[in-house]
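Hey, sorry to bother you again with one of my protein questions. I've been puzzling over a protein and I'd love to understand its fold better. Take your time with it, there's no hurry, and the full record follows here:
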Amino acid sequence: MSISTTVPAPNSKMNSESNTKKVMLSAVTPSNTLTLGNYLGALKNWVGFYENYDCYFFSVDLHALTARQDPKALLDHTLRALANYLAAGIDPKKAKLFIQSHVRQHAELSWILTCHAYMGELSRMTQFKDKSSKQGQNIGCGIFSYPILMAADILLYQTDLVPVGEDQKQHVELTRDLALRMNHLYDTELFKIPEPFIAPVGARIMSLQNPLAKMSKSDTDPNASIFLTDSNDQIVKKFKKAVTDSGTEITDDPAKPGVKNLLTIQSAITKKPIAELVEGYRGKMYGHLKLETAEMVVAEIGPIRDKSNQILSEQTELMKILREAAQAASVQAELTTTKVREALGLLSPAR
C-alpha cells in the first residue's frame, strides 16, 4: 500500500469559549543525537503548525534520566536538539521552545498524577514491559513511572493535540485516563482531554540495517541510523550499506521492507506519492535507489546540520530563546497547577 505524501495541518478551528488557538505539544528526549526518523517524523512536519496552534516544543531532559547519562553528553544533546528545532525552521517568536526541567511544574504535577495512577495500568505499558524484560531485576523506578511524567508534560499546558508515533499512542491513552479520572474525582474540569495526532508520512522511518525495526537514536549499529550530525560522506556511505531485499524490482510491496523504507524516506522529503516514485524507478537497480535517496537526504539535512552547528557556536541567542520561552511556559503551567492545588486542598505558595 502506498503511503500518502500529504501531511494535513491540524484543524485550525478555534476554541469557541476562549477564542484562542488550541494547543499542540511535542517533545524530544535528549538521550542521543536526533535521527533522520526524528526529523521526518516530527520536526519537518511541525514547521508552520503554529500558524493555527499554540505550540510547545521542548527537550525532556528529565525523561532522559531514566537511564544513566553522561552529564556533559546530556547537556550537549539537550542543546543540540533545540538547535535542530530552530535550524529546521521552527520560529521561536511563534512557538515556545524550552527545556523541560526549566519549568518546575512538570515535576510537581507528575507527583500529583503519580498519586492518582494505578500500578496495574503502568505495568501494562508496552515500553515498560519491553525495557524491563531486557534489564532483568534491577529495573529503575523511572522506567516504570515515566509515562506519568509524560502525562504531566501534556496536561500541564491544557493540550488539545499530541503528535506521536504509533509506539507512543498508548501513553496518550494513559494521559487521557488520568485526566478523566481526576476531572471526575474532583468534579471539575482540571484538564482538557488530549487527542493523539499521527502524521501519515514519515511517522515511522525504519532502520537501514533492519527495516522491520524503527530507526532509533540508541541503535548499537552505527550504520542503522542517519543522525542529523552526520557528514555528507557518512550519509552516503550508510545508504550504500542499507539493507534492501532479494530480487531487483523497486516496489512498495510490504514483502520488500528495505526498499519500501527508502521509498518512504524519499516520499517524506519530496512529498511525492510512493506510487509515483516507483514509476520513476522502472528498469532501474537498487543502487540507483540507494544513491538517489542518499543525495536527497544530504540536500535535506546538510543545511540543518550546518545551521545547528552555527547556533551552538553562538549560544547567547539560543539561551535567550530558551529562557524567555520557559518563562512563558511557566505562566501557563502555573495556571494549571494552581487549579489542581485548589481542587486537592493544597495551599499555593505566596507570590
Observations:
- The first strand starts at residue 22 and ends at 28.
